[in-house]
Amino acid sequence: METDARQSSLTISSLVSTAARLQIYKAMLSRISVTVVLSSTWRHWQPMLDHLKENGVEFSHMTPSLRDPHLVRGHEIQAWLMEHPEVTKYAILDDDTGMLEHQLPNFFQAMTETGITQELADRIVAHLTDGSSASLTKDSA
After folding, report:
1. 24-41 pLDDT, tens per residue?
2. Domain limits of the chain?
3. Rounded distance, CA 17 to CA 140, Å?
4. What's the angle, vertex CA 62, arms to CA 61 and CA 67, rounded to 5?
């Protein structure tokens, strides 16, 4: 059973910057249907946005920039979620630890040095599919 793209979202940060990371990320997305939301500061840097697009990293939305030094990334993610009440399940993949307390069960922290790993990808799939990820792998044909 796949997750409903209208009800699930995945916010991503700067964790898909190498070929190996991109491969893990794309394989993860092939197992789930989600709305991908860019939350990285990369959303402010056009050359990086172009690079991501050239490498097949697609995202449907970007979190808003709240530009308040007292706010953390979790506030920006929360603002996006409030604008999209149809999202009932989400995962945050980020190396930035600035999440709100109620977001922590949905937060999957990657290390800046390693980015997304297979273990993190598997945990995100399980989280978004209520643990039924074994049946999610799509045929490559």
Report:
1. 999 999 999 888 898 877
2. 8-132
3. 24
4. 155
Going through the chain in order, the beta strands assigned E by DSSP cover: 8-12, 35-38, 61-62, 89-94, 107-109
Residue 59 scores a pLDDT above 50:
yes
- Pairing type for strands 8-12 and 89-94 reads parallel
Neighbouring CB atoms inside 10 A of 99's CB total 19
Fold of 8-132: Rossmann fold (3.40.50)
- 3-class secondary-structure state, position 34: coil
Residue 89: how many other CB atoms lie within 10 Å: 16
> Using one digit for the tens of pLDDT, what is the confidence trace for 2-14?
334 445 666 555 5
Residue 136 in tokens: 């999610």
The amino acid present at 66, given as its one-letter code, is L
User: How does the average pLDDT of the chain come out, rounded?
Assistant: 80
Q: How far apart are CA 59 and CA 12, in angstroms?
A: 9
Q: State pTM to two decimals.
A: 0.80
Secondary structure of residue 12 in the 3-state scheme: strand
